[in-house]
Amino acid sequence: MLEFSKVQPEETVSEVVNYSQSSMSNDSCTSFSRLSFDALELLPQPRPMYSPESLMLKPHRSSESSWQAIRSMVDGGSTLSFRDFCLVRQIGSGDIGKVYLCRLRNEDVEERKCYYAMKVVDREVLALKKKIERAATEKKILNMLDHPFLPSLYAQFEASHFSCVVMEYCSGGDLHSLRHKQPRKRFSLSAARFYAAEVLVALEYLHMLGIIYRDLKPENVLVRSDGHIMLTDFDLSLCSDAIPAVQSQSQSLSSSPDLPSSSPAVQRPPSGHFSCLPTQLFRSKKIQSFSAAKRLFVAEPVTARSCSFVGTHEYVAPEVASGRSHGNAVDWWALGIFIYEMVYGCTPFAGVSNEATLRNIVKKPLKFPTVSSNSSRESQARDLISKLLDKDPDSRFGSKRGAADIKTHPFFNGLNFALIRSATPPVIPSQKTMTATTSFDFF
């Protein structure tokens, strides 16, 4: 059963995170080059930050070899630390940390080695940049997640003045790189629909937990070894509250624009309604009518608000670009930009400069590369994109009931969201042998 965790909303409205060229930069945590884990052996064992008992709370990873390898390390009550991992090479760099490919030290046979991604953050650099709270938010969110399209936190610990988190490694790169390998640097409509659907499911889960992502872009959508996606990088996310409810699919959106009712009016089935379960099985008339009506599960953080100026220029919503407060609708705007870029190979409001891009987002009308669409599926994609890129956040598609509404759009007709994890991805990454040479020579 999913447990809805209540976390405190953003504390200060005056907090402003200045834009950079993107939400990620390459100049952060440069002091990690001074780090040698071997030299840290003389330091006292750091206080454990991740209990062995918490490893039991990731059921969807229980059958994977990388998870079992971690579990075998903590059997008997021991805790993981920097001494248990061996770094291989750097694979990424972000605004508040660097990411390294790593493996467990005790795995000597190449065929048995399991690889992980370790994000390393220099707390001294965080303090200078005044981004300690952002790093803390990301850790808190990672501890909450248990979903096939979101990262699994395997371990977290501290080494000297560095803070480390170990997560699942995605060998397929990211969707930005993958798109550039496609013909005309764009995905087919079927591939774009697949990736949009998995991102939608991931965002739905985050919103159910009261988390507004705020940094959706192809660079943050990683591709796992099986071809499915993993949404990553939560240092810009906003934590709030979501109130779960069950609504009738035909219930008016305007009847409860902010807080969905947990006891909506129940529709009675029309005469001659056929059900595979006879109504005699239900002793309560209330249960009979409830089971007959089409229901939608809704858990959208509609009351969340922030004035922080965060995101990536081409993906920020108009309310953010204009300096107004924003809420859950920014993620659905970003989903519209994401689908547009997947289908057409570019973003719709990009300008010659960051300032021009922000002006276009606020004032420029949405346009598509060609006047008419080539197929009915493309027409459906354009309709969905247009509804998601509504400049008014109050009328934007998904702003009231989130993914529950977006899933019903014709663009996703024929797609079984409940079984999408079992669907065949458009691209399966080639299994390249990773050379785990001596890890620390390059430091």
UniProtKB/TrEMBL annotation:
Q: Which CDD domains match?
A: STKc_phototropin_like
**Which key words tag this protein in UniProt?**
ATP-binding, Auxin signaling pathway, Developmental protein, Kinase, Nucleotide-binding, Serine/threonine-protein kinase, Transferase
**Chain intervals for the UniProt region annotation (Disordered):** 251-271
- Which EC numbers characterise this protein's activity in its record? 2.7.11.1
UniProt protein name = non-specific serine/threonine protein kinase
Pfam families documented for this protein? Pkinase (PF00069)
Q: Where is the composition biased (Low complexity)?
A: 251-264
Q: Which PANTHER family match?
A: FLIPPASE KINASE 1-RELATED (PTHR45637)
What InterPro entries does this protein map onto? Answer: Kinase-like_dom_sf, Prot_kinase_dom, Ser/Thr_kinase_AS
Kindly state which reaction or reactions the protein catalyses.
Answer: L-threonyl-[protein] + ATP = O-phospho-L-threonyl-[protein] + ADP + H(+); L-seryl-[protein] + ATP = O-phospho-L-seryl-[protein] + ADP + H(+)
Family to which the UniProt record says this protein belongs: Belongs to the protein kinase superfamily. AGC Ser/Thr protein kinase family.
PROSITE patterns registered for this protein in UniProt: PROTEIN_KINASE_DOM, PROTEIN_KINASE_ST
The entry lists its GO molecular-function terms as: ATP binding; protein serine/threonine kinase activity
Q: Name one GO biological process term.
A: auxin-activated signaling pathway
Q: Where is the Protein kinase domain?
A: 85-412
